[in-house]
Amino acid sequence: MAQKGNIHTLIVGAGTSGLLIAQGLKKVAIFEAETSTAYQTRPRDLTPDATTGLPVYNGKTGELVVEMEAENPCRVSRKKLRILFMEGIDVRYGKEADGVALVEEGDEEGKVKLCFKDGTSAVGDVVVGADGARSRVRECVVGEEAARLTENPLCITSIHPDHGTVFWISIQDVPDPSDPSTWTFQLLMSWLNNPLPASANNHQGRMAFFKTRAEEWAEPWRSAGRWVKRDTRIPLDAGRYWERARKWDNRAGRMTLCSDAAHPMTPHRGQGLNNALQDSSHFVAAMVAAASGGKSLAEAVDAYDAEVLERGTLEMWISLKQTMFIHNWETLMASPMVKMGMHQARKEEGGGSCVDYRGGREGGI
Ligand SMILES: Cc1cc2nc3c(=O)[nH]c(=O)nc-3n(C[C@H](O)[C@H](O)[C@H](O)COP(=O)(O)OP(=O)(O)OC[C@H]3O[C@@H](n4cnc5c(N)ncnc54)[C@H](O)[C@@H]3O)c2cc1C
């Protein structure tokens, strides 16, 4: 969809949402903090296709606990998705955004200026922060304190009844369907309130810890753990969400946020990407409405912000509840995963005990 008017959009972050916005609007500049090499070789990824629901097993016995309901769930490779979304887009690599401010005087008064760590800057009509969960743009828009994320006490994802650790396995890539030795898998181990032992602060220690834990699992998780090569890098992530999320001042439509920058969420309901796609499409529609004169920039961005904030924070709280409930055998069957499967959260599903999770950790967590 081409932009009809003269709104020059500066996009911070060439992830899923940033690239999609760039595809949807013609007059943009897209800035990515990573160098082109680091960006292309980034090891993190999402995962492949399942055509039915997602089964959850008892990690200790291997018994099926529940089949999470889902309509045509699809796991995708983040790398392949990015390559697809990048077609025809000129990403400016090595441009780490560090500041955003309104231009207060001169020819460009009223516009917005984006400053980079390398000392350069760019001026445009609107800045959209698509720079992920730890968004620098969010800090600039709402201030560092208000932008701060809350770390779910979660470390690195079948569910083990003895300690509630989740061990997730999914297929990442299948270059040759007839030869499983060419397939790539994603393993994710996660737990709550259970800090890693000091020995797991380095690569070797973390691998030893992972291997020891995997031995407690039934097949096929145990073998999957054994097959991980010792030199594989195991990244350590805390589950993060924006507890302080609230309406941000978009400076009359000049600055806004998209996707993880607007609603970082824990990954256990797999809804981050869906919301990234929706946000990007809505942002493009907002810019088109403003460019065509159907709405003022301020009105278009206000409406965009309000919808993103409501939908995104609803999903953020439901995902957090999911994260909390599935890491405890006693609460597993009450988790959103079991009750509502993987469909997009509806407003009426966001109330009650889900909202109680806002910082309060009710339920003893
Ligand atoms: C372990 C894990 C598993 C997940 N599993 C799923 C799943 O199963 N299903 C699902 O839907 N979602 C999942 N997600 C979430 C999903 O990956 C994200 O929601 C989605 O990728 C967000 O897209 P984005 O464009 O907001 O951010 P990203 O794709 O993270 O892109 C942000 C980009 O901004 C760049 N950047 C950061 N700071 C700056 C700066 N200051 N200046 C310039 N550039 C900057 C980064 O380098 C990056 O390229 C998972 C996430 C994790 C961590």
UniProtKB/TrEMBL annotation:
<protein>
    <submittedName>
        <fullName>FAD/NAD(P)-binding domain-containing protein</fullName>
    </submittedName>
</protein>
<dbReference type="GO" id="GO:0004497">
    <property type="term" value="F:monooxygenase activity"/>
</dbReference>
<dbReference type="Pfam" id="PF01494">
    <property type="entry name" value="FAD_binding_3"/>
</dbReference>
<keyword id="KW-0503">Monooxygenase</keyword>
<keyword id="KW-0274">FAD</keyword>
<dbReference type="InterPro" id="IPR002938">
    <property type="entry name" value="FAD-bd"/>
</dbReference>
<keyword id="KW-0560">Oxidoreductase</keyword>
<keyword id="KW-0285">Flavoprotein</keyword>
<dbReference type="GO" id="GO:0071949">
    <property type="term" value="F:FAD binding"/>
</dbReference>
<dbReference type="InterPro" id="IPR036188">
    <property type="entry name" value="FAD/NAD-bd_sf"/>
</dbReference>
<feature type="domain" description="FAD-binding">
    <location>
        <begin position="249"/>
        <end position="312"/>
    </location>
</feature>
